[in-house]
Each structure stands twice: as C-alpha cells, then as structure tokens.
C-alpha cells in the first residue's frame, strides 16, 4: 500500500496510471486549483506514489524535460482522465 504526501492520504494498490484521452495536466497538488507542473500526451503510463484522501487525485512519480524529479505531481483520478493499473 502507498500513501500520499498530503497528510497520510488514503492507501492504494495502484502501481501506475494510464493517461486516457489526448492529454492530461499534472498539478503541484491534489486539485485543479494548484499550479500546473506538466501536460502529457494520452497513452502514457506513469508510476503512482499515492492517492489523495478523497480518492479523487493520484500522486505520481514525475520528471521534467531535463529529467529532474518533480517533487509534487498529481493528476485527476477521474476515469475519463486516468485508468489505474493494479499489481
């Protein structure tokens, strides 16, 4: 089980998410009111680090174009945006 960095967060068995549709925006926190940190094309799979307390946002393992780690990277858990992969 993994946990988010915003408080303890809720546990998740998801190991990654598939980005659905044409693209998705990643945010610096669990919500669209946070600063966008990246936009990725659909079809990509991204490792999951945790989930928000309400289960609405995935915390991801993200890197920028220079291959630098993005410390706080979140994407919507809405099924139109992402599909989780379980072990």
List keywords for this structure.
87 residues; SH3 type barrels; disordered N terminus; mainly beta; two-stranded antiparallel ribbon; globular
Could you outline the blueprint of secondary structure elements for this entry?
Elements: E1 16-19, E2 23-27, E3 36-41, E4 45-51, E5 57-60, E6 62-63, E7 69-70, E8 74-76, E9 82-85
Antiparallel strand pairs: 1-4, 1-9, 2-3, 4-5, 5-8, 6-7
What's a quick, concise take on this entry?
Helix content is 0%, strand content 43%.
Give an account of the 3D structure:
- 0% of the residues lie in helices and 43% in strands.
- It has strands at 16-19, 23-27, 36-41, 45-51, 57-60, 62-63, 69-70, 74-76, 82-85.
- The strands form 3 sheets. Strands 8-5-4-1-9 form a 5-stranded antiparallel β-sheet, with no helix packed on it. A two-stranded antiparallel ribbon has the order 2-3.
- Residues 1-5 have low confidence and may be disordered.
**How would you spell out the order of helices and strands?**
EEEEEEEEE
Please compute the radius of gyration using only Cα atoms.
12 Å
In terms of DSSP E residues, the strand content is 35-45%
From the spread of the alpha carbons, the general shape counts as globular
Average pLDDT number: 88
C-alpha termini separation:
11 Å
Q: In order across it, which strands form the biggest sheet?
A: 8-5-4-1-9
Low-confidence runs of at least 5 consecutive residues: 1-5
CATH class: Mainly Beta
CATH topology: SH3 type barrels
The CATH level-2 architecture is identified as: Roll
Question: What's the story with the biggest beta sheet?
Answer: 5 strands, antiparallel
Structural class: mainly beta
- Beta strand count: 9
> What is the percent of helical residues?
under 10%
Number of structurally distinct domains: 1
Please identify which CATH superfamily we are dealing with. SH3 Domains
Tally the helices.
Answer: 0
């Amino acid at each position: 089980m993994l946990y988010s960095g915003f408080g303890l967060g809720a546990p998740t068995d998801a190991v990654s998410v598939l980005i659905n549709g044409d693209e998705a925006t990643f945010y610096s926190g669990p919500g669209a009111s946070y600063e966008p940190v990246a936009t990725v094309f659909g079809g990509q799979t991204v490792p999951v680090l945790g989930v928000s307390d309400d289960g609405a946002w995935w915390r991801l393992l993200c890197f920028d174009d220079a291959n630098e780690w993005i410390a706080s990277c979140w994407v919507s858990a809405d099924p139109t945006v992402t599909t989780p992969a379980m072990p």
